[in-house]
Amino acid sequence: MEPMMNVPVVEQHPVDELTETTPAACCCPVHGPDSTTLPCGCNSAAVACADCQPVGVGRAIWQVLSAALLTMAVGIAVAVYLIPRMLGGDSLVINSGSMLPALAPGDIVAVRAIEPHQIAMGDIVTYSTQNALITHRVIGVGAQGNGATIITQGDANNAADAPILAEQVRGKVIYTLPMLGMVTGWLRGNIHWVIAGLGVVWLASYGKQWSSEKRCQQ
After folding, report:
1. How far apart are CA 110 and CA 178, in angstroms?
2. Which residues pair with 109 in a beta bridge?
3. CA distance readout (Å), 155 to 23, 66, 91, 166
4. pLDDT tens digits, 188-206
5. Which helix (H) or strand (E) holds 169?
6. For residue 50, is pLDDT > 80?
7. pTM surpassing 0.85?
8. Strands annotated E in 33-153
9. Which of 17-21, 53-57, 95-99, 112-116 is least confident?
């Protein structure tokens, strides 16, 4: 009889027990734990991580302010540039006090193109001379030869201007944006600093959000 040999016994395990399980990934929403917007790479089945932090007060204030500033900037652009040009006119900055108190230095006026026969007493018009553009009130309308003559005067002036031809009138003032000319003038001279400052603030508030996705483990 042959001697019996000891055969090593191999312990059996179910397949599921041998498979390494990976903890479920989670994602932090980009606008805080109450948001449903997930970073790039997170699918709709991902859940919010336990250590996701809410949006800070500073960032929330910046979001509100940036939205308000953007709305204001769009409104100003429409009022200053788009509407006057759609009406065949332009926008001008008042540089003197000859039309006080109606118009003050630094105000922006929107000027609409007007036909000579439409000019009436009391209108505030902008007309061209050899040296400048002048915005004054119409105090008289007359005729000279085959053309109309216009007499204007600044509300704060003691004497009327020299008569002009109706063809010199560039347009009629349709609305005023008080003091906005000072703001636009300052921005025009410091636009590079404004852009740089807004870029720094934007990067501080939103740069991390648009970088690589944030993942954590529960």
Report:
1. 11
2. 92, 176
3. 79, 40, 20, 20
4. 677 778 778 777 766 666 6
5. strand 169-177
6. no
7. no
8. 47-48, 90-93, 108-112, 124-128, 133-144, 147-153
9. 17-21
Q: d(Cα 91, Cα 174) in Å, to the nearest integer?
A: 10
Question: How many angstroms separate the CA atoms of 21 and 25, rounded?
Answer: 12
The reported pLDDT for the residue numbered 217 is 38
Instruction: From 113, 164, 112, select the one nearest 138 (Cα to Cα).
Output: 164
Distance CA 79, CA 96 (A): 22
141-184 per-position pLDDT tens digit: 987 666 789 999 999 999 999 999 999 999 999 999 999 888 77
Find the length of the chain: 218
Chain centre to alpha carbon of residue 25: 39
**What's 118's DSSP letter?**
G
Contact 194, 186 (CB under 8 A): no
Q: Which residues contact 166 (CB under 8 A, 6 or more apart)?
A: 116, 119, 147, 148, 149, 150
SS3 107: coil
Q: What region, left, alpha or beta, does residue 69 occupy, with left being phi > 0 and alpha being psi -120 to 50 degrees?
A: alpha
Closest CA to 88 of 165, 4, 209, 170: 170
Query: Where in the chain is CATH 2.10.109.10?
Result: 70-192
The CATH number of domain 70-192 is 2.10.109.10: yes
Cβ atoms of residues 205 and 59 within 8 Å: yes
CB atoms within 10 A of CB 42: 20
